[in-house]
Each structure stands twice: as C-alpha cells, then as structure tokens.
Specification:
With 443 residues, this protein is an alpha/beta fold. It has 2 domains: 174 residues, Aspartate Aminotransferase, domain 1; 214 residues, Type I PLP-dependent aspartate aminotransferase-like (Major domain) (Aspartate Aminotransferase, domain 2, 3-Layer(aba) Sandwich), CATH 3.40.640. It has 13 helices and 14 strands. The strands form 3 sheets. Strands 4-10-9-8-7-5-6 form a 7-stranded mixed sheet, with helices on both faces. The chain has a 4-stranded mixed sheet with strand order 1-2-3-13. Strands 11-12-14 form a 3-stranded antiparallel sheet. Bound molecules: pyridoxal-5'-phosphate. The site of pyridoxal-5'-phosphate (PLP) has 13 residues, from helix 4.
Amino acid sequence: MKATPTTGRSQRLYRKAKGFIPGGTQLLSKRPEMFLPDLWPSYYSRARGCELWDLDGRRYLDMSYMGIGAAVLGYADPDVDAAVRRAVSRGNMTTLNAPEEVELAEVLVRLHPWAKMVRYARTGGEAMAMAVRIARASSGRDTVLFCGYHGWHDWYLAANLAKDSALDGHLLPGLEPKGVPKCLRGTSFPFRYNDTDEFLRLAHRHRGRAGVVVMEPIRNKPPEPGFLEAVQRTARQRGMVLVVDEITAGWRLNPGGAHLGMGLEPDIAVFGKAMSNGYPMAAVVGKRGVMQAAQGSFISSTYWTDRIGPSASLACIEKYAALKVHRHLAKTGNAVQDGWRRLAGKHGLRISLDGIAPLGHFGFEGEKALALKTLFTQEMLKRGFLATNAFYASWAHRETHLRRYFAAADRVFGSIAACLARGRDPEKLLSGEVCHAGFRRLI
Ligand SMILES: Cc1ncc(COP(=O)(O)O)c(C=O)c1O
C-alpha cells in the first residue's frame, strides 16, 4: 500500500498513549512531534532490513535513524536474532550467571587493548551513570567536566542547575533539571568539542575538585589538531579519569570504539546501542586500576545479568567485524551526504551538512528551517519514506534503497525550492504543525 500522511491506527494509538504515558513515549527521539506532529506513523507492526510497516499495514523505507542508531545491521538481523532465540530457548534468566558475559568481556578487551576489565548495563544512560560513579570513586573527586549529550541521569542534568542554558549546544538543548537535587549544583560543567582553551580554563578553575572528564571521541566534526591530545594530557596530569562515550559513535568507524583510530587512550569507554543491534546491552570497558574502584561502590542490578544482551552483542560484533560493516557504513553515509549536497545545489537550496559519514545530517538554512524540515518529512512520508534531516547508515541500506530515496528527495527538494521561489510560507503547505526542535514539554 502506498503511504499517505493521513491518520490511522498508529496516529490514534499515539493520542491514546499520551493519556497514559507522560510525553507519550519513553524516548524523546521517538516522539512523533520531533518529526511530523499528528501525522508521523509512531508505531510499527513489524520491521526487516531497513523497512518497516505501521499499524495500518503501510510500508516505509527507513532513511532516518534506524532505531535511533541501534540497528546498525538492520532490523530483525537473522544472525543476531538467531543468537537471541538460542538464549531464550536455553533460559534467559536464572539464579546463575550467563557465561556469554565472560566471552563478551574477552572480545571487548581484545578489541580495546588498552582496557582490561568490563562491567555491563542495559542502556546507554545507565552505563554512563555507572562510568561516572566508577570514575568518581577512582579519582576520589566529585566534579565532572563534560562535552556533549550523555543521557538523562542526575550527574548530567546537574549542569543545568547552575545555568539553564548550560546544556544548550550539547545535542539536546533546553533539558530541564526539575527533580535533580539542587545540592548537585556545581558538580558538572560543560565544555565545547574542539574548544581546547575552554577545556583548559575549566580544568584549571576546578583543579583539585574535577576528577572526571566525559566526552564523545567524535560526533559532528573531526577533532581539531591538538584538541584530543590536550584533553588526554590534562586529564593525566591532573589525575582526572577520562571517559569516552561511544554509545553512538562506537561501531560506526571501525569494529569497536571510534577512539581507536584517533590516537586517544581513555581510562574508560562506554558502549551501547549498535553493540547489540537492537537488544538492550551496554558495556563500561576500562583500565584495571580504574575499574577496580567499582568494588568500593555498590553497582548492581538484576537485569544487567540477562543472557539476551551479551548473546546479541557477541553475534552482532562477530558479524560486524567479519563483514567489515564500517566500510559499508562509510560508503553509504558518504553517498547520502553527497546526494543531499548535489540535490541542494541542483535546486538552489541552502543547506548545511554535518556529522561523520555514518551519522550524517543536514539543516535547511534560514528562519523557516524547522518548517522546511517538517515539509521534507511530510512529503517524503507520502512517498513511503521515514525521512528527516538525518540519516544513520546501516548494513541493510543498499544502492537500490538510495536510488529510490534520491528519486523522491529530488522531487521534494524541487517542490520546496519552488515554494521558496514563489515566496510562499512553507508552513502553509504543512498538513499539521511544525515539528519540535530539541526538548519541549508535551501536553
Ligand atoms: C552519546 C550518547 N550518550 C548517551 C546516550 C544515552 O543512551 P540511552 O538513550 O541508551 O540511555 C546517547 C543516546 O542517544 C548518546 O547518543
């Protein structure tokens, strides 16, 4: 069935969800308002490769976030799913531990030779909270200097207690810290990626108190010469534990952490999302001396011991490495970024491009940017695509998908350009409201 942006069971279910679930979903990035208010399909009935079906049986090609970066091999990957089925049939949870935990630890430590020990969690944010706890315990100091987005936990949102806008520019602006104890004010401080001076000033100002540095190795821009070196050197000199957050960047540029190819040797690296292709799993990987500090702190949870997580992860990593999936992600991501650039040029649209190849995004320029983004999503949805201004490449995306995507995007960019050329307000072409920018409370 050809998709049209119309309302059906998926949209009705979301309206109902908002009555039961504050905010409607569990993840900000899955809120339909972030894409196409009132019209985004919201729910899926099944998914395979890079395609999925909504509750009304409409089929879409996912040219957006692929499970918000988790499904790096594609949806319902047969090899990962077979490993999960094996785990399920042998018992996922017992009084004893799953041996796959140890096997996975060996794999992670082999891939990251600077590291010797591993702890597990099941989501990125909780793994980051665990890493920060271990790093604080190890350094014996409370203050965290960080850059970028790292989840919903108190240690991170505490930065917004000091200054409402402290987290602006760190991926999700406007995150509110209500419910975060005010006594945490002054415990975490942000710096901007590639701003060496800002980092050095912060490290100096909080000397003796700052014990942890948290950052993604890379996300939107490559590191400027000297930036990562300065962070690593300063962390060492000042006795701060360096934590790299690989939850999204990991498993995109090579089989393992992005830091591996960047001359960066952290004390801890944290993985999630793509390490298990859609099954809950996260790992905190680190140096022995630092990780042993976990023993002096209570860090423990029942479902961190399930068998599905490490089984899925072992199968995912094995396939990723065997097929050299990162090469495919680079090729596909570059092709999409080139395509956006080419089509924008062809139609005279002003766009900015950002992101490493496998995690690319573009932005329409000008004051109607959000309306244009919404219009793009609306028009692509009509043509059977889940599309926004970002594309996360997966193993499942093939040239034929890209050809279909660009044939549709060509027409949509063309009609956007025509709208702008006629001086029309793009909002007038929307069937619903403009999508939301970062975080906003939903009623
Ligand atoms: C860099 C980074 N850290 C942490 C997180 C939080 O992970 P999760 O949503 O699994 O809690 C994310 C999620 O997008 C992320 O991109």
